Amino acid sequence: MFSFLVARRYLGSNPWQTALLIAGVALGVTAFVFITALINGLATRLTDDVTARSSHVSLEPADRVARILPNPNPYLKTEAVALVSMLQRKQIRTWAATVALLESQAGVAAISPQITGSAVLVRGEAAAPVAVTAIDPGNLDAISPVSREIVAGDARLNANGILIGYRLAEAMGLSVGQPVMFRTDRGVERLLVIEGIFRSGVQSLDERVAYISLETARALFVLPAGVTNIEIKLNDTGQARAFAQFLSGATGLRAIPWQDRNSSLADALTAQAQTGTLIQMFSLISVLIGIASALSLSAARRRSEIGIMRAFGVSRPFIASVFVVQGLLIGIIGASLGCCLGYGLCSWLATFSKPDGSLALPIAPAEGGYVLVIVLTTAGAVLASVIPARSAARLDALEAIQQ
Amino acid sequence: MTAVLDARGIGMTFRNGDELTPVLSDVDLALQPGELVALLGASGSGKSTLLSIVGLLLRPTAGVITIGGERVDILSDAKSSLFRNQRLGFIFQFHNLLPDFTAIENVAFPAAATSGGITGVMRKRASELLDRVGLSDRIDFLATRLSGGQKQRVSIARALMNRPELVLADEPTGSLDRAAADQVLALMREINREDRTTFLICTHDEKVAAGCARRITLFDGRVDDARA
């Protein structure tokens, strides 16, 4: 295309000005990439922190409602209402089929059927309430990395075993191998032995949580067949809401995505993303204003040349295309350069870490929104060039030549 | 024989707010194929305006213009652009070449801009034209590296690129020294003689006018036609 040659010559005729213009675009794009990588990295870190010890989707028994049944006698106007007993235990009886369904789904990283409930640990005259999570001993770390956090004893759960947090152990003077009376909210009690003591770093967990095996819990919580909940980890936390919706429809159970359990975090992430979008928009707008003003100056500087072209019959669309192509080239080159710079900057920043090994800046160099920024910058640069292109194309040939 | 240019009753009045300034009034002008015509007149006589009207750069307020048998004063902007490109050639006094392009690219530009690029055929034609104007050794020189006379010779080659029926020259020697002006004039005469290309040269240079076969003088917006 001949307009490409002309545009390239125009850009090449003033290399310093063109270099500055491209550098301006590249810097704006670098800022965009940095902000995007930082916001995405921060969101990933916060999400990971929040979901590190919890599931991404929880399945619980559906809420009970009173159902209206059809009246078997069509001559009677009254409606028969079947009240589902609110006294019945809420549980998932078909949990094995649900687990089978989950195992067939791509994107599911881990599944943990659980019995959860409340109990009291009693030792002598001391008693402490605990939140009990009963899990499959062979799948101990499915949801929370329990075994990695063991500071005394083993991450083993046999029929009489119990794992408790170090704060609870300290409070009750318990150590590994010692027996403790375990009394559930169902009024069943049994002597269990401390198999391991964990330290998660989360005070509430270390003070209040205890793990026992699923089979042990069946007798203690009087649940011979069912489970109270199924916890699921996904490969992509962002898919939790959609997957929960799918599960809810497929199983009839109540599926709760992690965002619903942490709505304040979800709101904070949304607000953070919106702030980031504003910053990205401003950086792009400043880039586009730069392109528009530089090309407008170029169009003004080349009035006489445009006049000559118009005089020997070069069409207005061709003149306009020369300026649009300049915008396109500046956009593509500037955006590509800015992406490289942004990636380099983010990768460099990602090498800095805190003494504990975590990143000093929660930045995700791979998530800089590169394709988006190239498309937006290029499209924006073309749009920004439309004003100078129109002004150049509208130039009166005679007036331009006479000047 | 069909006239290359036939302009009848051309009038041009400029409006500046409520003020009307008549520049041309009832001008008739006809050029036959192969003519070399000088358009003379004092400064402000309207000769550049007439040239611009004939070159479809300005629409007259009155009159009818026919070029090569086609009425052109009523053409749309896009059509008059294409007409200028295909059937007219222009030589200006200043700002004649595109500075970021080489001599051969400048010559080929009018053809390339309407067909998407410089083809081999265009390059050959442009090269022949540059050879003809004596610049075969400057083909790949940027326009900025050429002297004033060389630039004007390149612009003559460019004006001829699309084999126009009529070449319009506005003070083509006005910014040149005497030697360069003589070269440019000789070149236009040679092309006119050999190719029978019609030239309408707007000038106030008596020597240029003397080199033309016919001179038309504008006086107070009216024509005084004289043949040599």
Pick out its properties.
heterodimer; A: 403 residues; alpha+beta; 51% helix; elongated; B: alpha/beta; Rossmann fold; 4-stranded antiparallel sheet; 36% helix; globular
Structure, described:
- The complex is a heterodimer of chains A (403) and B (228).
- With 403 residues, chain A is of the alpha+beta class.
- Helices cover 51% and strands 19% of the residues of chain A.
- Chain A folds into 2 domains: 2-50 and 266-402, no CATH class; 95-252, no CATH class.
- In chain A, strand 8 and strand 9 (189-198) form a beta hairpin.
- The longest helix of chain A is centred in the C-terminal third of the chain and has 39 residues, at 263-301.
- Chain A starts with a helix and ends with a helix.
- The mean pLDDT of chain A is 88.
- With 228 residues, chain B is of the alpha/beta class.
- Chain B has helices at 47-54, 77-87, 103-115, 120-132, 148-160, 178-195, 206-210; strands spanning 5-16, 19-31, 36-41, 62-67, 70-71, 88-91, 166-170, 198-202, 214-219, 222-227.
- In chain B, the strands form 2 sheets. Chain B has a 6-stranded mixed β-sheet. A 4-stranded antiparallel β-sheet of chain B has the order 2-1-4-5, covered by helices on one side.
- In chain B, a hairpin with a 2-residue loop joins strand 1 (5-16) and strand 2 (19-31).
- The two termini of chain B are 21 Å apart.
